[in-house]
Design a protein that fits this description.
It is built from 10 helices and 5 strands, in the order ααααααβααββββαα. By secondary structure, it is mainly alpha-helical. Helix 2 crosses helix 3 and helix 3 packs parallel to helix 7. The longest helix has 45 residues.
Length: 279
């Protein structure tokens, strides 16, 4: 320990054990911090690899990146798009952005159109093929449940209703958020415009005027595929707040776009949701 002896006698001063321990601490802090950074980086890499494996499996099993039959479900697909955008940021690989864009297209062409077992065909909005391509969210988006929706003359079965198709507002608002994230990640304005068009359609379809002019609008939980009737008329307590926050987010993004006046501004919808939240 010659270097320690040298320290204890440098400049004629006597270094106490405390001074010596402080010097050791100063010497080892940078190394410890570097080790912690490397450990954190390693942990991040591990989690990224786990996310990649999970989303690769999802792409194969859902038909997104395989020849298997398409399995589109709006809630799950909304999270999947955001996951792919996150992986693109984390890895710098544009392939994940392409998967996100492909999934958006599949959702619109599957859940934005009538079921294969439905006698109706085409876009659920009723738009023709070309107009539907330009405005794929104008009529909302199906949930993607296994069973067809309950018909207008069918008896209501609370348990069976969970497995029946239709439209949920909170699923639509999740997809609005997802489309907005695509615009923020890619700079392509049309996804935010589609999100705002969906917000207008959802507000008009799921909210209804009160019996008294002094009361706020109300909302229903579930609507039919074509948004013509309520399937579950009770109101989800979080739906107005969800709609309010999401609409504010969409409007904030639109204000940053090159042509911010393109598409609906959502002023009416924001005010309507805000009124419901206050009550």
């Amino acid at each position: 320990m010659e270097w320690y002896s040298d320290l204890t006698n440098r400049n004629g001063s006597d270094w106490s054990p405390v001074h010596f321990l402080l010097m050791l601490l100063l010497l080892f802090i940078p190394a410890s911090m570097t080790g912690a950074h490397e450990e954190k980086q390693s942990l991040t890499d591990t989690r990224t690899q786990q996310a990649i494996a999970l989303m690769d499996s999802y792409a194969q099993h859902s038909g997104l990146a395989s020849d298997r039959p398409l399995k589109r479900y709006l809630w799950t697909d909304a999270f999947a798009v955001c996951n792919y955008l996150g992986l693109a940021r984390a890895t710098g690989e544009p392939a994940y952005t392409e998967l996100a864009l492909k999934l958006v297209e599949q959702v619109h062409h599957t859940l934005g159109q009538h079921r294969q077992d439905d006698p109706r065909t085409g876009w659920i909005s009723g738009l023709n093929e070309d107009a539907g391509e330009l405005h794929p969210t104008r009529g909302g988006l199906r949930i993607g449940k296994a069973l067809p929706e309950r018909g207008p003359h069918d008896d209501f079965d609370a348990r069976l209703e969970w497995d029946r198709d239709g439209q949920y507002f909170h699923y639509l608002s999740k997809w609005m958020h997802t489309l907005d994230q695509v615009t923020r990640a890619t700079g392509r304005a049309r996804f935010n415009i589609w999100a705002r068009e969906l917000a207008v359609s959802a507000f008009d379809a799921f909210s209804y005027p009160p019996s008294s002019s002094h009361e706020p609008r109300r909302m229903v939980w579930k609507k039919s595929i074509d948004l013509s009737r309520a399937q579950v008329p009770s109101m989800g307590k979080h739906d107005p707040l969800d709609g309010y926050i999401t609409s504010l987010q969409l409007a904030a993004t639109s204000a940053t776009l090159p042509l911010p006046d393109t598409g609906p501004k959502l002023e009416h919808e924001i005010a309507g949701f805000a009124h419901m939240v206050q009550y």
